[in-house]
Amino acid sequence: MHESSDEHMLERILNNNEDLAAHNREHFDAAGLLCINLMSAPGAGKTSLLERSLLDLSKHWQCSVIEGDMVGELDADRLRKLGVDVSQISTGKSCHLDAQMVARVVHSKALDKLDYLFIENVGNLVCPADFPLGEHKRVVLLSVTEGDDKPLKYPVIFHNCDVVLFTKCDLLPYVNFSVARATQYVQDLNPRAQCFAVSIVTGQGIDDWLNWLSSAYLQSQKNMPVSI
Amino acid sequence: MHESSDEHMLERILNNNEDLAAHNREHFDAAGLLCINLMSAPGAGKTSLLERSLLDLSKHWQCSVIEGDMVGELDADRLRKLGVDVSQISTGKSCHLDAQMVARVVHSKALDKLDYLFIENVGNLVCPADFPLGEHKRVVLLSVTEGDDKPLKYPVIFHNCDVVLFTKCDLLPYVNFSVARATQYVQDLNPRAQCFAVSIVTGQGIDDWLNWLSSAYLQSQKNMPVSI
Question: Domain A2-223 is classified in which CATH homologous superfamily?
Answer without folding.
Answer: P-loop containing nucleotide triphosphate hydrolases (3.40.50.300)
